[in-house]
Amino acid sequence: MSLKNVMVAQSGGPTVAINASLAGVIRGVMASDQYETVYGSVNGILGILNNHLLNLTEIMNENPAYLDRLETTPAMYLGSCRHKLPDYLDDDSSYVFIFKQFELYNVGAFFYIGGNDSMDTVLKLSEYGKKIGSDVRIIGIPKTIDNDLCETDHTPGFGSAAKYIASSVLEIAHDTFIYAVKSVTIIEIMGRDAGWLTAAAALARNGYNSAPHLIYLPEVPFDTDDFLLDVKRMLFERNNVIIAVSEGIRDASGNYISASEKSVDTFGHSQLSGAGKTLEFLVKEKLGVKVRSIEVNVLQRCAAHLASKTDLMESVELGKKAVALSEEGVTASMVTMNRVSDDPYTIEYGYAEIKNIANEAKSVPTEWINAAGNDVTQELIDYLTPLIQGESNVTYENGLPVYMDVSHLTKHQ
């Protein structure tokens, strides 16, 4: 029986761990007796549509050491996209072309590494493949710093972003505590509908540091009057108040406090910006104390020098598991992680049907948020702590980290 090939792509927002999953796919194929070559689709699904593919097996065979470097390189080696496939019942032209490409390159499995919107693509391709009787196995490999994919304990990329958030909050606390004046520092953290990343700020607390003193997540309604009372109370107890807020905090009516109704992305999500700045102006006006806001934006998803070793190791294993599952005939699914124990931290790798994951979102359980809605519980701390353990093995040269050459992403721009 002749060997098949595989195709892999990356999509959505970057993380420091998504290339580790790509490396895992390559390693899985190198050890496979069913697959021969890995083709990488540049810029997500668009690479297939534009016939912009890289022979990753050839690249890695020229220098196997590249795989180790790939595992610690941030963002996406293959590039990304925000392309939403149409419903094939309305327009199947893209699907016809994609599956012709699979046939042309003798593809037996397609792996899409991404978050919620990427799993929508996996679902659509799986449904179309079933309709036409294709034997191409289509499997999603999770990644997102938002940690909001269902059916899995957590998502690759989240642990490293959480480690960066907690480290940054601790460092901000050190910077803030040097002044013996009343001040408020508001740290806005990514999280449109789920507050996992913002909750990770609580990991900065230690024996001498109680910051962040207040935490607000989008899972519970945000009330500005209650917020001001919380800040007043904290200012009475201490000079410096540090607050972590999700970008997606919203009022009891479900309105984002910083969203533009007219600005939405390709998938229909409101474009958010300015929750921290909005609250900065509110505190300045109502409380009259020194206040600043800090927006932690892309830094948390590209700081490979501060990646979690646990996160990277799990990401590699998920890539390898996806290959193994496809060899078993699994399709229309996403690779998952199931937690067996917190102490010692233990997980098992499995899979779940993509129909139960695409276009769904996992929120922070309300029982892991305190009754006042301004902090998190110990249960959430216990859940988060194992995910940030260990340090990445980044190579340095001339004082700077050395990453994979990604000039193939820029030479046509």
Quick synopsis:
The protein is of the alpha/beta class.
Please state how the strands of the largest beta sheet are arranged side by side: 3-2-1-4-5-12-13
Give start-end ranges of low-pLDDT stretches.
Answer: 259-272
Radius of gyration: 22 Å
Tell me about the largest β-sheet: 7 strands, mixed
State the domain count: 2
Span of the ends, CA to CA: 41 Å
Subunit structure: Homodimer.
Active site: 146 (proton acceptor)
Protein name: Pyrophosphate--fructose 6-phosphate 1-phosphotransferase
Main location: cytoplasm
Describe the protein.
This protein is an alpha/beta fold. 34% of the residues lie in helices and 21% in strands. It contains 13 helices and 15 strands. The protein is elongated.
Question: What key attributes describe this structure?
Answer:
413 residues, alpha/beta, Rossmann fold, 2 domains, 7-stranded mixed beta sheet, 4-stranded parallel beta sheet, 13 helices, 34% helix, elongated
Secondary structure: elements and pairs:
Layout: E1 4-10, H1 18-30, E2 35-41, H2 45-49, E3 53-55, H3 56-62, H4 66-71, H5 93-104, E4 107-114, H6 116-132, E5 137-142, H7 158-176, E6 183-189, H8 196-199, E7 214-216, H9 224-237, E8 240-246, E9 259-264, E10 270-272, H10 275-287, E11 290-296, H11 299-302, H12 309-327, E12 333-342, E13 345-353, H13 378-384, E14 396-397, E15 400-401
Parallel strand pairs: 1-2, 1-4, 4-5, 5-12, 6-8, 6-11, 7-8
Antiparallel strand pairs: 2-3, 9-10, 12-13, 14-15
Site (Important for catalytic activity and substrate specificity): 117
EC number: 2.7.1.90
Active site: 146
